[in-house]
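Collaborator request, handled under Task 6.
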Amino acid sequence: MKLEEVIVKYKVAEFSELTEEQKELLLAAEKKLPKAYNPYSKFYVAAALRTKDGQIVTANNTENSSYGLTVCAERAVIFAADAMELRDFTSMAIITRGNNFDALTPSTSCGACRQVIQEFAERYQMPMELIYSNTAMDNIWITSNKDMLPLPFGPDALGISLDEYR
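Structure tokens returned to the collaborator:
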């Protein structure tokens, strides 16, 4: 792949256009949104992760007064599912809003979260569908881990096999 060919590909949808599984996942994330611990940014982020066997795990962003210790919802949900020994993630829904406003467009994952999403998708050899939404659910972006991080740095670059970690 040439660098000039790298673009983020995504589908724009409204809630009514989603599959039942996509709707269920997005609504699970929405339920978690009020639980965000965000005293500094006042920005709410929640994520819901679906495993291959259909289980759903949710998490929210958790801030810290030492800002670098803040954990995004995407990483929180992946690490929680992994700690519960739930594997083979197939999709994740991420929903965001401000304290007193909804965004017109969805907010996508930061670079650190994209890297973690990519590594876990690679770890379990499963592409991961990513569904980003604002709380109005009128502007939903659907993409994949590969499209969000098309030139990843990962275990292959270090000559490491993940076989024993699957």
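The cover message to the collaborator said: "The chain has four helices and six strands. The mean pLDDT is 93. Please let us know whether this matches your experimental observations."
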